[in-house]
Specification:
Layout (H helix, E strand, L loop, with lengths): L4 E3 L2 E3 L5 E6 L9 E7 L6 E7 L5 E3 L7 E6 L4 E6 L8 E8 L8 E2 L3 E5 L2
Length: 119
């Protein structure tokens, strides 16, 4: 089992942008869906965005609608999360999940990438 590999986190000023990448490989290639969750210190993990691999349907948490965009490169088995107009409360560890038709909790989770929004 090879977990997905995230990249692209970092430190950004409020109002700035970051683009996260998530590459699936091996058994996690050709997923049912891929998604992003995040967890801030002292808070529960929460859903951010997801995309069904087949038809490209996109879903977003209300807190990120209009600011974040999920996309995919099917040939590369890679999902992206473009994050614009970042705010300090977007600070969290962001986790990519490859969902294989059995629910997010049973998906393959990445190790996480830290996003810090601070002036």
């Amino acid at each position: 089992q090879v977990p997905p590999v995230e990249s692209g986190g970092g430190l950004v000023h409020p109002g700035g942008s970051l683009r996260l990448s998530c590459a699936a490989s091996g058994r996690t290639a050709n997923p049912n869906a891929m998604g992003w969750f995040r967890q801030a210190p002292g808070k529960e993990r929460e859903f951010v965005a997801s995309m069904f691999w087949g038809d490209g349907s996109e879903y977003y948490a209300d807190s990120v609608k209009g600011r974040f965009t999920i996309s995919r490169d099917i040939a590369k088995n890679t999902a992206y999360l473009q994050m614009d107009h970042l705010q300090p409360n977007d600070t969290a560890a962001y986790y990519c999940v490859v969902e294989k038709g059995t629910g997010w909790s049973r998906g393959d989770w990445g190790q996480g990438t830290q996003v810090t929004v601070s002036s």
